[in-house]
Structures are given as structure tokens and as C-alpha cells.
Design a protein that fits this description.
- Helix content is 68%, strand content 0%.
- It is built from 7 helices and no strands.
- It is globular and about 55 Å long.
- The protein starts with a helix and ends in a 14-residue tail after the last helix.
- The mean pLDDT is 94.
Length: 135
């Protein structure tokens, strides 16, 4: 997929009126994801994305403290000056395309690496991990 095709998909998913608005969403959301995702999953995702999108993702230095899914949305809203509702909308529109490009196996690995709350942002069911039994 080319970057232009990715923008058109995001524009469709987000019902954005212009390509520029879709491009802003892609840049903002992938920059935010780049601050959260680490390890082999980050590298593998970058390889799945069009070059321009991969550069946006990898240009960010991962933060030492990972945010939950809701924390991700709130941080994105604060950084972009958007409302949390708009930030959530943008995240869903961009992550829908990212999920398709990544494929189910890589997406599962990404979701395992990130704290809770991201599955819903990627349009997936949020499955709870079993907690260890108390001794």
C-alpha cells in the first residue's frame, strides 16, 4: 500500500472532508503510537507501513512510562488541542488501517506489548489476561 492509498483509507474510515485532515490524523496518531510502542513489534510494524508513515512512527522516542488506551487518547487530545472525542475518533480511523496493514499476528503481538485499552482502539475485542491465582 502506498502512503496515498493509506490516506484515502483513513479519509474513508474517519469520514474526513479532506486529504489534509486525514494526513494530520495519520501524523498525530502514528507519532503518539511511536512514543508508546517498543521492541521488535515497533520494527515489524514500521516494515508494514508505507515509508512516510513508518518514518512518522519511528521518528518518536519511546517514553519510559506507557499509557493505557484511554491515557493514549487523553495524551493525544492534549498534544493536538483536540477534544478527547475527536482524538478517539482519529485514533480509531488510523488504527483501523494500521491493523489491516499489520495483519492479525503482528497486531496480537502489538496488543500484548501495550497496556490495557488498546484493543478497542484497534477495533478488536478487549480480552482480559488471566490473573495469577492468589497463593
Amino acid at each position: 500500500m502506498t502512503f496515498d492509498q493509506m490516506l484515502e483509507r483513513v479519509r474513508y474510515e474517519g469520514a474526513y472532508p479532506t486529504r489534509e485532515r486525514a494526513a494530520a490524523a495519520v501524523h498525530n496518531v502514528l507519532s503518539a503510537l511511536g512514543r508508546q510502542l517498543t521492541g521488535k513489534e515497533r520494527v515489524d510494524l514500521a516494515h508494514c507501513l508505507p515509508v512516510e508513515a513508518a518514518l512518522t512512527l519511528t521518528a518518536q522516542t519511546p517514553e519510559s512510562e506507557q499509557l493505557t488506551g484511554w491515557g493514549f487518547v487523553k495524551d493525544l487530545a492534549a498534544r493536538t488541542g483536540a477534544t478527547p472525542a475527536v482524538a478517539r475518533w482519529d485514533t480509531g480511523a488510523v488504527f483501523a488501517g494500521v491493523a489491516r496493514l499489520a495483519g492479525p499476528d503482528l497486531l496480537t503481538r502489538i496488543l500484548r506489548r501495550l497496556p490495557g485499552g488498546y484493543a478497542l482502539l484497534f477495533g478488536q475485542a478487549e480480552l482480559r489476561r488471566p490473573e495469577p491465582a492468589a497463593a
